[in-house]
Amino acid sequence: MLQGKNFAKVWQIALPLLLGAFILAWTYHGMDFSKTWNILLSETNYGWLFLSLIFGVLSHIWRGLRWNLTLEPLGEFPKKRNSIYAIFVSYAANLVIPRIGEVSRCGILNKYDGVSFTKAVGTVVTERIIDTLCIGLITLITLLLQTDIFTSFFQETGTKEFPFKHLFSSTNFYITLICLLGLCILSFLLLRKLAIYSKFKNSISNIILGCLSLKNVKNLPLFLLYTVGIWGGYFLQFYLTFFCFDFSAELSFSAGLVLFVVGTIAVIVPTPNGAGPWHFAVITMMMMYGIDKENAGIFALLVHGIQTILLALLGIYGLVALPLTNKK
């Protein structure tokens, strides 16, 4: 039998995979994929797809450069390329164990540039707070622009109708509930691991110091510019994929905002790159804009698959480039 520590490690890998597989199977149950290959070969505009991926890469580069700005006030000056490669690797690591990338990228800078692990963790916490505020602002703007469609989405997912008997009768509500439960379990496991590591290092104060690094950033306008670039890049990476397919090319900019918001929130659920919850959210919302279920399913499958491949390739590139560019 597996010991407790080994069981926890296996569970951290197995839970996201099982959760994502279950939601994917539920979401795509009964869909007809007979035309998927034909769309991929003859009906996909790869020019728009390539352009969307460029913005995806740029957003990761800008995130690495922004990270350096928060490390400088702490007396840490990693090479810019190392910070960028660490971001590449972290997103690829999240494909294996969701959220583990936040820890791995701090370890990379510690290894190659001697950056304090706990200070780096603190800056990552700050970064996540900033990202939460950004997605909150984008969500608020989108809600004001598309109130009706969000109301329909909540009704469709069973998260608005009361009394409770209507709520519990929605199968989509149970998918949402399972996602939240998985998020809580994996977050607990990762936080416990991080707490143990921090206790071993006896450097809780460094984490707090890293969290407060933002107030001492020397070039705040550049920090804000990188932040806008990161989220603008994320949005354009997604929105430009609409023009890859005839059935989605007519969707409006506001529709792109709505789908981007629900997809970004869905990615919070701990599955590899949001697989399952992201598909469920995007397909449900696209159907509300008049896209039939099969086409919406094909869109989600192809777009998510290609973006996941990009993350994996960037991660491999980062892993290869790090030792080659840091031979000394």
Quick synopsis:
Helices cover 75% and strands 0% of the residues. It is an all-alpha fold and 328 residues long.
Keywords:
328 residues; mainly alpha; 75% helix; globular
Describe the structure in your own words.
The protein is mostly helical and 328 residues long. The protein is 75% helix and 0% strand. The chain has 14 helices and no strands. It has helices spanning 4-27, 36-42, 46-71, 80-93, 101-113, 117-145, 147-156, 164-168, 171-201, 204-211, 220-239, 253-266, 277-288, 293-325. It is globular, with a radius of gyration of 21 Å. Residues 159-170 and 196-202 have low confidence and may be disordered.
List the helices and strands and how they pair.
Elements: H1 4-27, H2 36-42, H3 46-71, H4 80-93, H5 101-113, H6 117-145, H7 147-156, H8 164-168, H9 171-201, H10 204-211, H11 220-239, H12 253-266, H13 277-288, H14 293-325
